[in-house]
C-alpha cells in the first residue's frame, strides 16, 4: 500500500439493509475532514470497477442528509460477481471473468484502497481481490446477523423492529378472530430475527433453522393453548427452516423456498387442526425503511473505523463488533491448529498469552489448551468444590483469634491456643496470585491476594467454633461429615 493515501473508493454489494447510507456517510466525512482524501463511490456492487464511467465522486454535499435514509445511494446487486459475471448473449446466460479488468481500472483510477460493505458473499469477493493485490477493508453488513466474528451487524436491529411491530399488529387481529397466524421472517440459514422477534412479540411457536421440529409438536402446542382457554396462536417461522419429511397426517412435506415456507407450514396446520390459518410473509419489508437509532450509531462507527483502518494501512482486514466495541480481524496474523505446540507466556484469569513456533504471540482462552472433555470435567469439579461446605473436626495448629463476625472489628474476640479441638462448619476457597517477575528475581516471596469468598468472608478465613463454646447440634441440623 502506498505511504501517501490520496483517493479511496467505497462499494457495497448484496442485499440492501438499513444503515448502508450511514456507513457511506461516515467513511466520506472521515476521509475528507480527517485525512483530506478524495472518495469515489462504486455503483451497483463492483460494476463501476468494470465500467468506470459509472463511478461517482462523493463529497460532503452528496452525503448530506442521507443518515436517516434507507437503502443505499450507490445502488447494489447480488448478481454482480466480477469473477463470474452473468451476461445474456443471444438469449442465453453466460458467465465472464471481469476481475482482471477491475484490477486494471483500480490502478488506472489511482485508488489507494477500497472500503467494501457487504455480507459473506460480497466480502468473499473483496478478499479475492485482496489476494490479487487490491487494498481492501471490509465492513460486515446483513440483516441476518449471521457473519462470523461479528456479534451484531447493522440492519439487524431495524429488521427486528419491523418484525416485532408486525407481530404486535397480528396479535390483536388473531385474538379477535380466534385464528392461527403464521408469520415468515427473513434470516436465511440463521434464526436470529425469528428468535428475537418471536420473544419480543410474544409468539407462541418459534421455528428456526438451528432446531428441528415436527408438525405434530406445533399442533400439540396450539391445542394445549386452546385447552387453557387461548383460542389463537402466533407462529413465527424463519425462512431457512428445515421442514420435516412428513406432516402430522404422515403425508410428505413438499419442498419450499424462502417466501413460501410459511404457506407450506400453514397448509399442514390447516389440514391437521381444521382451523383457520392465515399467513403473513414480511419478506423485503424488513430490509427497507429508515434505520433505527441503534443501527445509525453502529453503522456510523463502522464507517469511521473503516477509514481509520485505511489510514493505518490495515488493509485486507474487516472490522467487527465485539460486545458493542469495534475491532479489526487480522486473519493473516496466526492460526492455531489442533495439536500445535505453543509456549505459554502469561495467564490472566481465563486468558493465556502464548507464542507459536513462528514467533507470533497473542492471547487465547485457557480452555483452548485443554481437551474439551477434560476442561468440562475440571470446571464442573471446581464448581462443585466451591459450592460444597467443608465440615469436619480437627485441632488448631497455631495460636489464632476467633471473631464472632468475620472481617469486622468485633467487640468480642476468642483466642485459640495450639491443640484446641474445633469443628469446621464452612470454608472459603483461597486464590493465590502469580509471583511477579521482579519478585522472582529478587527472591522475595509473592504475597497472597486478598479476595472475598461467596459468603462475604476474606478468602482463607475459616469460621470455626470451639467445641467448648459451640452448642450441641440439634436434631434438625443435617449430618456432618467427620474426619479424624
Please describe what this structure looks like.
With 484 residues, the protein is an alpha/beta fold. It has four domains: 7-153 and 291-329, 3-Layer(aba) Sandwich (Rossmann fold); 156-286, Rossmann fold, CATH 3.40.50; 343-386, no CATH class; 387-466, no CATH class. Helices cover 29% and strands 21% of the residues. It contains eleven helices and 21 strands. The strands form six sheets. It has a seven-stranded mixed β-sheet, with helices on both faces. Strands 9-10-8-11 form a four-stranded parallel β-sheet, sandwiched between helices. A three-stranded antiparallel β-sheet has the order 14-15-16, with no helix packed on it. Helix 1 (20-35) crosses helix 9 (293-311), helix 5 (156-177) packs across helix 6 and helix 7 (215-227) crosses helix 8. The longest helix is centred in the middle third of the chain and has 22 residues, at 156-177. It is extended and about 100 Å long.
Amino acid at each position: 500500500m502506498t505511504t501517501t493515501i490520496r483517493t479511496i473508493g467505497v462499494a457495497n454489494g448484496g442485499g440492501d439493509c438499513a444503515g448502508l447510507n450511514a456507513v457511506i456517510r461516515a467513511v466520506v466525512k472521515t476521509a475528507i475532514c480527517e485525512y483530506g482524501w478524495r472518495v469515489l463511490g462504486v455503483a451497483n456492487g463492483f460494476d463501476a470497477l468494470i465500467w468506470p464511467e459509472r463511478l461517482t465522486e462523493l463529497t460532503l454535499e452528496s452525503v448530506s442528509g442521507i443518515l436517516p435514509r434507507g437503502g443505499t445511494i450507490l445502488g447494489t446487486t447480488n448478481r454482480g460477481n466480477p469473477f463470474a459475471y452473468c451476461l445474456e448473449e443471444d438469449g442465453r446466460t453466460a458467465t465472464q471473468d471481469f476481475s482482471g479488468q477491475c484490477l486494471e481500472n483500480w490502478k488506472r483510477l489511482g485508488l489507494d484502497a477500497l472500503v467494501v460493505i457487504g455480507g459473506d458473499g460480497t466480502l468473499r469477493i473483496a478478499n479475492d481481490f485482496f489476494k490479487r493485490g487490491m487494498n481492501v477493508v471490509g465492513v460486515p453488513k446483513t440483516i441476518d446477523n449471521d457473519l462470523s466474528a461479528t456479534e451484531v451487524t447493522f440492519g439487524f436491529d431495524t429488521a427486528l423492529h419491523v418484525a416485532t411491530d408486525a407481530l404486535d399488529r397480528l396479535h390483536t387481529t388473531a385474538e379477535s378472530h380466534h385464528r392461527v397466524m403464521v408469520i415468515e421472517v427473513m434470516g436465511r440459514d440463521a434464526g436470529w430475527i425469528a428468535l428475537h422477534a418471536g420473544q419480543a412479540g410474544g409468539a407462541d411457536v418459534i421455528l428456526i433453522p438451528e432446531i428441528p421440529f415436527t408438525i405434530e409438536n406445533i399442533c400439540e402446542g396450539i391445542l394445549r393453548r386452546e385447552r387453557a382457554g387461548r383460542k389463537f396462536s402466533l407462529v413465527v417461522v424463519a425462512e431457512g427452516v428445515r421442514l420435516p419429511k412428513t406432516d402430522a397426517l404422515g403425508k410428505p412435506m413438499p419442498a419450499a423456498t424462502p417466501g413460501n415456507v410459511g404457506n407450506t407450514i400453514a397448509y399442514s396446520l390447516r389440514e391437521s387442526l381444521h382451523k383457520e390459518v392465515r399467513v403473513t410473509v414480511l419478506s423485503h419489508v424488513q430490509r427497507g425503511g429508515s434505520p433505527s437509532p441503534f443501527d445509525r450509531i453502529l453503522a456510523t462507527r463502522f464507517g469511521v473505523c473503516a477509514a481509520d483502518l485505511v489510514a493505518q494501512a490495515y488493509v485486507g482486514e474487516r472490522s467487527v463488533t465485539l460486545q458493542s466495541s469495534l475491532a479489526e480481524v487480522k486473519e493473516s496474523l496466526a492460526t492455531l491448529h489442533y495439536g500445535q505446540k505453543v509456549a505459554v507466556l502469561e495467564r490472566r484469569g481465563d486468558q493465556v498469552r502464548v507464542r507459536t513456533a513462528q514467533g507470533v504471540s497473542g492471547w487465547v482462552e485457557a480452555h483452548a489448551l485443554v481437551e474439551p472433555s477434560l476442561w468440562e470435567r475440571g470446571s464442573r469439579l471446581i464448581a462443585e468444590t466451591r459450592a460444597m461446605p467443608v465440615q469436619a473436626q480437627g485441632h488448631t495448629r497455631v495460636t489464632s483469634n476467633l471473631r464472632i463476625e468475620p472481617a469486622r472489628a468485633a467487640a468480642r474476640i476468642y483466642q485459640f491456643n495450639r491443640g484446641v479441638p474445633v469443628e469446621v462448619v464452612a470454608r472459603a476457597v483461597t486464590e493465590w496470585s502469580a509471583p511477579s517477575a521482579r519478585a522472582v528475581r529478587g527472591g522475595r516471596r509473592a504475597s497472597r491476594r486478598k479476595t472475598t469468598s461467596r459468603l462475604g468472608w476474606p478468602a482463607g478465613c475459616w469460621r470455626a467454633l470451639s467445641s467448648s463454646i459451640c452448642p450441641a447440634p440439634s436434631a434438625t441440623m443435617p449430618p456432618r461429615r467427620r474426619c479424624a
